[in-house]
Write a structure and sequence with these properties.
Distance between the termini: 18 Å
CATH class: Alpha Beta
Order of helices and strands: HEEEHEEHEHHH
Structural class: alpha+beta
Number of helices: 6
CATH topology: Rossmann fold
Number of strands: 6
Strand order of the largest sheet: 1-2-3
Number of domains: 1
Shape: globular
Strand content: 15-25%
């Protein structure tokens, strides 16, 4: 899900990706909100994303609050977006890995993929969406990309005010 948002941002803002061998990631660069932005697609397993993110932040000298992480979340209804300024991993292995590696003081966007059946979390996360679900998810991905761009230009509070409310999307 996060890769989809990064791809939308890359298309809209002219970034192309190239492999960064020292980061184990694909990196795209573009301008967002008047700032030079790095779009990152870690190539590690999701639960090992934290060390990749830490290395990138250290190498580029980016402070934790200037990191925005986008993840899927089956604790949220399908298509719902939730933006938070900080916090823990909330049961998401990738987010937990990042929190362990860099701390919990970075903003994040969670995109709801709906709740799995009991005992079916892994299959639910890895399965394809139905056509109707895909329409909802694609819309949420577009909103999440807009939220990242708004965060870059106008700040986190503006993005939260607009996209945390179902009426605002």
């Amino acid at each position: 899900m996060g890769f989809d948002v990064v791809d939308v941002l890359a298309r809209k803002h002219g970034a192309t990706f190239r492999k960064e061998r020292f980061w184990n990631a694909l990196r795209g660069r573009c301008a967002l909100g008047g700032y030079d932005a790095t779009l990152l697609k870690p190539l590690s397993y999701v639960n090992l994303t934290g060390p990749v993110v830490r290395k990138v932040l250290e190498d580029l000298g980016i402070p934790e609050p200037e990191l925005m992480v986008v993840v899927d979340d089956f604790a949220l209804p399908l298509g719902r977006i939730r933006i938070r300024p900080s916090g823990g991993g909330g049961g998401h292995n990738g987010l937990t890995s990042i929190v362990r590696a860099v701390g919990d003081g970075f903003p994040r966007i969670r995109i709801g993929i709906g709740a799995p059946e009991p005992g079916e979390a892994v299959d639910h996360v890895l399965s394809r969406f139905s056509r109707d679900e895909r329409e909802v998810v694609d819309k949420a991905i577009g909103f999440a990309a807009e939220a990242v761009a708004l965060w870059a230009s106008d700040g986190l509070e503006a993005a939260m005010n607009r996209y945390n409310s179902p009426e605002g999307r």
